Amino acid sequence: MNEQQKKNTSKFLSYVLRHHPELIDLNLDENGWANVSELISKSANNSQGFTFEELDEIVQTNNKRRFIFNEDKTRIRANQGHSIAIDLALTPQEPPEFLYHGTAQTNIQSILEKGIEKRSRQHVHLSQDRETATNVGMRHGKPFVLTIKTKMMFDDGVQFYLSDNNVWLTDFVDAKYISK
């Protein structure tokens, strides 16, 4: 599988495991886990075929660590970013003093007025470093990185979670906790 095929398969997996499992009639459990054999079989029926070895390579080499297997590699799920209702079974954790949110410059005014909303996703995503946040922001236009006062939020009772691929998650970031 060449790099372009890996990229295309990764995008397909993100789409199916995070947003539209019904595209291939894939069953996800309440925690977002899919049976690997079923995923491979139903993907092949949808012209997106890949082998277990190719899937394993994508899981192991994806730079954003978007996917995870269970211990015996019989089930797979996306680590975060779902727009479908699932329970990732994450435990609330205390965040560092500051986290970062990457966005496009065109969104700054709205965010500073309304805060950061999860919109169609289950959570707002925050990064541990500016570089990652910048890369996220670049996907949406000219990037801009906001600093989020996460320790202050936590002290005010806001819950945070850390996904398996080290993305911090919360439900909403009020504008009062955001600085440019």
Automatic annotation (TrEMBL):
Keywords: NAD, Transferase
Domain of life of the source: Bacteria
Alphabetical list of InterPro entries matching this protein: Ptrans_KptA/Tpt1 (IPR002745), RNA_2'-PTrans_C (IPR042081), RNA_2'-PTrans_KptA (IPR022928), RNA_2'-PTrans_N (IPR042080)
Molecular function GO labels: transferase activity
Keyword Nucleotide-binding: no
Signal peptide segment: none
EC number of this enzyme: 2.7.1.-
PANTHER family, alphabetized: PUTATIVE PHOSPHOTRANSFERASE, TRNA 2'-PHOSPHOTRANSFERASE 1
Function: Removes the 2'-phosphate from RNA via an intermediate in which the phosphate is ADP-ribosylated by NAD followed by a presumed transesterification to release the RNA and generate ADP-ribose 1''-2''-cyclic phosphate (APPR>P). May function as an ADP-ribosylase.
Family the UniProt entry places it in: Belongs to the KptA/TPT1 family.
HAMAP family hit by this protein: KptA
Protein's recorded name: Probable RNA 2'-phosphotransferase
Source species: Chryseobacterium kimseyorum
Name of the coding gene: kptA
